[in-house]
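ok so heres the complex, two chains, lmk if somethin looks off
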Amino acid sequence: MFEARLGQATILKKILDAIKDLLNEATFDCSDSGIQLQAMDNSHVSLVSLTLRSDGFDKFRCDRNLSMGMNLGSMAKILKCANNEDNVTMKAQDNADTVTIMFESANQEKVSDYEMKLMNLDQEHLGIPETDFSCVVRMPAMEFARICRDLAQFSESVVICCTKEGVKFSASGDVGTANIKLAQTGSVDKEEEAVIIEMQEPVTLTFACRYLNAFTKATPLSTQVQLSMCADVPLVVEYAIKDLGHIRYYLAPKIED
Amino acid sequence: KTKQAGIMNFFSKK
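and the predicted structre for the whole thing:
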């Protein structure tokens, strides 16, 4: 028996919005420690890794490890039927071929349930090596989304250059060149407005704008985003999900042809 | 000129 309950459906809606542009379907691996999802996008350029800890749920029970393959378009249709403040419960029997998603209004006067067919997905799990990153940048998630959106107008690629002075995002194309520099913030009143750079050595890497823009669909989940970079390895873009877990996106760099 | 690398160039199958 698997049962996981969250106080607000809005969290699950935001999580789905953060992955459904990259993935058509995905396997949710459930165990007593929580829910994990790892999947590559269709073109095998990026990898999405979602971790939801069992202690972040209002109620969590998972007697046997369970892998639930879900069509994310179908899940989105079901979640559209929930009000943001509704409680949401996911339930499945051991070895079931369906999952039940139930919404309850705060006053318990409306209860709806949706049974969704599960899929058998033949998904490859990748081993992600431990990396000592050369640069780790923490910045407001909204600012990162704005930069990715703005620079995508000028080129398919963005160059991220990180030094101890700051981080520079550049794009160059037919229109010309765009550069956005962010300096590390001195003192800020609000922690969520800070730009913090931890640098071991400077790094310059090139990434495809369309994936970065897809990752920024996670912006509503978190006030801050963390970018971890190292020469010739994938960029890690991480959004914390408060008291519940995190979503990490790994993006392979563009390399010299 | 740059070309897009694949994620499996970096991460191995488990």
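quick notes: The helical segments of chain A are 9-19, 72-79, 141-151, 209-215. thats all i got rn
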